[in-house]
Amino acid sequence: MPDTYTLAVAQPRTAPSERRADNVARAVELVAEAAAKGADLILFPEHSPGPFTAAESYDATPAMTEAAKAHGVNVCWSRMEECSDGLWRLTVYVLRRDGSVALRYERSHPATVPPKDTGGWVAPGPVLGSFELDGVPMGVVVCSELWIPEPARVLALRGAQVLLSPAGGGFTSLAPNWEMIARVRAIENQCYLALTNNLWDVESGSALITGPEHPLVKAGRAELAVAEIDLARLRWLRDNDDRLGATKPFDSIPGLLRARRPELYGELAEPREGLFDYHTPPASE
């Protein structure tokens, strides 16, 4: 397992709907730019480079696969696609440096709006997104999945040291808290977290890379940000404990993933009234 790793977050200015396929060419350029800056992995936003909806028919797969191979960099991108059960989901792909697929993840928690408001075709996926890349355990939490504590925690307990969080964007008034949530997930799960989003109109984005002790980089209006993460330091934080005394050799309490009482948390898995309904009704309903 490497002691350091270099992450890049792509935050592209997204083309309007009538030119959506143009996003593929820009994504390929950003892969090249990230590789030139020494990135081991580049993360694209949710739906990037697409397609964004079921109505769009272009296929970004060949271009993204070739970009990963040509530049020797791992690439995480996503699109809306029809899955094997005939339902549509936001699907994330992680490509290795040779273009092979390390992960195909169907978003397990669709956007937290009523299914009828999505047209009834966005379905919840069956599993969480955990995988390993270059010997580093990782996980994926998409957009508003980041706001739900359990997916990130389970992925961290599976060993994930890096969480990738591609989001759609358009956060508007949510942006400060969205960025805060990203930092909180990194702190409480003692991991590094990369968040990115599409740039719409003139807003500043929330793309950032943050760690368990402090943020590393924030993109602002830039379309690309790169940072080296310290995995050796992360392992130290996970393996050591808090200590008394005024001088502490850490900026975040270590050992948090071990400082748990699993026997007290069983009710988290119990069915309850009022839970959000991700069910996608059949067309006949």
How would you portray this structure in words?
By secondary structure, the chain is α/β, with parallel strands linked by helices. It has one domain: Carbon-nitrogen hydrolase (Nitrilase/N-carbamoyl-D-aminoacid amidohydrolase). Helix content is about 20%, strand content about 25%. The longest helix has 15 residues.
Mean pLDDT: 93
The total domain count is 1
The main β sheet shows up as:
6 strands, mixed
Reported by name, the CATH topology is Nitrilase/N-carbamoyl-D-aminoacid amidohydrolase
Helix content: 10-25%
- Element-by-element helix/strand order: EHEHEEEEEHEHEEEEH
* Cross-sheet strand order for the largest sheet: 5-4-3-2-1-12
**Second-tier CATH architecture:** 4-Layer Sandwich
Please give the count of helices.
5
The CATH superfamily bears the name Carbon-nitrogen hydrolase
| CATH class type | Alpha Beta
| Overall number of strands | 12
Q: Which structural class is indicated by helix and strand composition?
A: alpha/beta
The Cα radius of gyration reads 19 Å
Short structural summary:
The protein is built from five helices and twelve strands.
Task: List strands and helices in order, with pairings.
Elements: E1 4-10, H1 22-36, E2 41-43, H2 61-71, E3 74-82, E4 88-95, E5 101-106, E6 129-133, E7 136-140, H3 149-157, E8 162-169, H4 175-188, E9 192-198, E10 208-210, E11 215-218, E12 224-230, H5 231-239
Parallel strand pairs: 1-2, 2-3, 7-8, 8-9
Antiparallel strand pairs: 1-12, 3-4, 4-5, 6-7, 9-10, 10-11
Helix pairs in contact: 1-2
